[in-house]
Each structure stands twice: as structure tokens, then as C-alpha cells.
Write a structure and sequence with these properties.
By secondary structure, the protein is mainly beta. The chain folds into two domains: 20-66, no CATH class; 71-168, Sandwich (Immunoglobulin-like), CATH 2.60.40.1120. The protein is 7% helix and 35% strand. It is built from two helices and 13 strands; from the N terminus they run ββββββββββααβββ. It has helices spanning 133-137, 142-148, and strands at 20-21, 35-41, 44-45, 51-52, 62-66, 71-77, 87-93, 107-110, 116-120, 124-132, 153-157, 162-164, 167-168. Strands 6, 9, 12 and 13 form a four-stranded mixed β-sheet that branches. The chain has a four-stranded antiparallel β-sheet with strand order 8-7-10-11. A three-stranded antiparallel β-sheet has the order 3-2-5, with no helix packed on it. The chain is elongated and about 60 Å long.
Length: 171
């Protein structure tokens, strides 16, 4: 189902059958520099998990937009003995319920030549870790993330902030 908001930002879906739905918002690039932050639906963020539409009070979804980047950035110091082109940074939520293949909270990034990395993620509590390129090719799974969390660093990402968290690999 699709809809377009009116000039005051309100939108409506008609004749929605009961059931669980995930919400996707496509702004078409407008307004420039604005991002969808969340979609509140019966107490859950419907961008992350399905929402039971029958539990939505008054049939209301609230889409929150922001013009502030939120996420984690930093630099990996892998020492001289490790080739950084074989390493990737990974950020994933501390809440294991959000460890699914469609989560916008599980992200992998290549390092820049100087070891810098950057992720845009929703506000929340995360682990930040390092993986080899081959480990990611195997596919990110809850088992892999469970093993990785023991060697990762916890980081809190507040709303509207890019948090700096440098990372050093022990030799």
C-alpha cells in the first residue's frame, strides 16, 4: 500500500486489513538533508519490526523526520602487523531482538585508507567491533553476533549525534 502526505504532513491509508506490517518511508530525496528517524506504531518502531495494526490506538502512526545525522564514527588502529584492507567495522544493537537480516541497526563498513569509518544508525545502544571480510561474506547471523559481542566495545548513540569511538586491535 502506498500513500502521499498532504501539505501539512498528514497521510492516510484506507481499508487496511488487520495484521502485522512493516513500514517503509520513501521521501524521494525530499526534503533534501532530512531522514526518517522512526515510525511509532503501537509502541514499536515499525521501521525495525512488524506492527500489529489492530493494536494502533486511533489508527495513528507517527513518522518522525530529522535533519541531524545520528551514528558512530571513528578510526581503527590495527597496528602495523594487520592489513586494514582485510578488516571491516561492524556495529550492531545490544538488544538481541534486533539481530535480524533486515535490521537497519546492523551495519558493516569498509575502512578508509587512514582507518576512518562511519555508520549512520538510529539512536540506541550498540556494540562496535572488527570483522574480517571473509567472516561477513559467510553472512551475519545471531550466532556470529553473539560471538562477536564478547570482543566488541559498547557505545551509546544519542539522538541527533555522531559519536566518536576509536578502536584499537590488540597485537
Amino acid at each position: 500500500m502506498r500513500t502521499v502526505p498532504s501539505s501539512d504532513g498528514r497521510f492516510e491509508f484506507r481499508d487496511v486489513p488487520p495484521g502485522n506490517y512493516r513500514v517503509a518511508v520513501n521521501t524521494g530525496g525530499e526534503p533534501q538533508g532530512w531522514f526518517v528517524e522512526s515510525v511509532a506504531c503501537a509502541g514499536v518502531d515499525a521501521l525495525d519490526v512488524a506492527c500489529d495494526i489492530s493494536r494502533v490506538a486511533g489508527g495513528e502512526l507517527v513518522v518522525t523526520m530529522t535533519n541531524k545525522r545520528t551514528g558512530v564514527l571513528g578510526r581503527l588502529d590495527a597496528g602495523e602487523s594487520v592489513a586494514t584492507d582485510a578488516l571491516l567495522m561492524i556495529v550492531f544493537p545490544i538488544d538481541e531482538r534486533e539481530w535480524n537480516s533486515e535490521s537497519r541497526r546492523v551495519k558493516v563498513a569498509r575502512l578508509a585508507a587512514d582507518g576512518e569509518f562511519s555508520f549512520e544508525v538510529p539512536p540506541g545502544r550498540y556494540y562496535l567491533g572488527v570483522v574480517t571480510s571473509t567472516a561477513v561474506v559467510e553472512a551475519i547471523s545471531p550466532d556470529m553476533l553473539n560471538r562477536l559481542k564478547t570482543v566488541s566495545v559498547p557505545v551509546v548513540v544519542p539522538r541527533g549525534e555522531m559519536v566518536r569511538q576509536d578502536f584499537k586491535v590488540a597485537r
